[in-house]
User: Fold this.
Amino acid sequence: MKFDAKSLRFNPDGLVPCIAQDHATGEVLMLAWMNAESLARTLATGQMTYWSRSRQAFWTKGETSGHVQALVEMRIDCDRDCLLARVRQTGPACHTGRRSCFFTRLRDGMEEPIA
Amino acid sequence: MKFDAKSLRFNPDGLVPCIAQDHATGEVLMLAWMNAESLARTLATGQMTYWSRSRQAFWTKGETSGHVQALVEMRIDCDRDCLLARVRQTGPACHTGRRSCFFTRLRDGMEEPIA
Assistant:
């Protein structure tokens, strides 16, 4: 079936969440947001391009840091309201320098960094 | 540091997205939403409990289908606006009977089911 981005169920701001997962290790790296145009740019260029809600601007991951994400495979979910991008991550995905943004776990009511 | 759910950055509807990942295989199973109370219930019971936006009700995953998700580890991201739940999934996670909701990939402008 031909893919039509209009068939996605964007939220009232015109966005869908996109999970970035390391294609080789399966590690979940981050979650960011895409509008139809950032998805089109990502598919056309092979470089993950999100929509920055804080800056209200396109955000090509790594364009300043060099920590780019190359798209390996884009998937959509059954409800068509979430994307899963399997990526090849250069350097850390997180702005803190960690590989993944999910470096804090909850245990017994406490927050613990994951080594 | 003691975890306080009030420190999470909920959206205007009081929700954060929660990614469910198979703890053993790393497969991303689904994305759903949680409010503070569904997170509290999940942490207290060890059973993934989301907030259904369509039904506007708590949704203990698998309570009707039996396809429950046992929480293995809950993580929060650097921005405190997304959760990653590593889970032990009984049966399929997706209501279509697939293991994961992300069973459709985009390739060359086409949608393809993943075997």
The CA atoms of residues 11 and 81 of chain B lie 8 Å apart. The two ends of chain B are 43 Å apart (CA to CA).
